[in-house]
Amino acid sequence: MNPPKVASIVTVSVVSLSLLNFSLKYYTYFSLIVAAHRSADDNDNIAAGGSEEVPHPHDLYVPFLTFIPTRSPVATRPWVLLTASFIEESFIGLTLATASVFYLGWYLEAKWGPKAFLKFIVITTLSTNMALYFWYAAKNALFHVESVPPVVTSTTSIVMSCLVAVKQRIANHYVILYKNLIRIKVTFIPFCWYMFLLVASLVISDWHIMHCEAFVSFFVSWVYLRFLKEGANERQSYLIPISIKSKNLEASPVASPTNLKFDENQPKGDRSNSFALCTFFPGYIGCVVKMVSNASFDFSVRHGILNAKDFIGHDEDDMGDPHVGGINSKLFSLSRLKGAENVALMPNAGSKLKNFLGLVSKDDKNENINMTMDKRRKLAIRQLE
Prior knowledge:
two-stranded antiparallel sheet; 5 strands; globular; transmembrane; membrane; Rhomboid-like_sf
């Protein structure tokens, strides 16, 4: 095995900081118990009466690793905006977070490189935590809320941002669960994860901050990958971006090698339709999101914020990726372009249940068939070249 550098460092940081946070919380808890017993003995009170004032370890937090929005002095301890996203308080959450961060990070680092992946993690975590801090500050200022905000301690922002990035690369693959009983398309995994946290936050109040982190990190990571990520994106074009820059273009209509220069004004990010915001949502939800996003896009084009020529209709599957091919047999199934059959959510379900769970309408199926044929033509052209 050749483990990735940055993904390994991030995984070790999650485990180390989580264990350090756990140790400091319980050290403080036992110290408070000892102090409460001593004060009870000095005042001739019952020891049990003094121990009732000691808070539960779950109610404690480490101010040098985590923060409470609007209450913690983030200006004097800015590193907490980063370390808070590397801490899990439960053993199950730590296990799932460790596996998700390592394997998803392994794939993304192999595709982007260590520097780009590290930059992506730092930007998404800092932006998410800063947005939560300012959101609670604005909420308290506008609505005069007196309740204490929850403590920000979760790796949800890292996991959600990695899921959005993986969707960008292998959107047409499927996750196989329970021995091929359930298949979930990779493009819908961020939405499913968010809905799970939303429902859980309605039942368990402690999960509310995780739901907020997932919501903010989803949009932060999508905006960064869509508009701001630097570097050439091979998904956008099969041709090298070359422009002809010559003063005497009329005198020499035939471009010589000295006249050819790389175009440095290429748009950043992934502007293809396969990474549009509506593609993250299934069924009618995606249609509603598409209507709203199209209206926002038209508004941005009219006011010169965005250029319509930067957004292309090209879509490409991750053909022949060795990093995906190594895990196809166990976790991911093949995309339709590679010959997958019966890609319904529950292949063994009845016809009525399949219609109820169907995420693609008849029109979408025809569109997907046309896109698949277009991909095959482009793949053939690449092989001929």
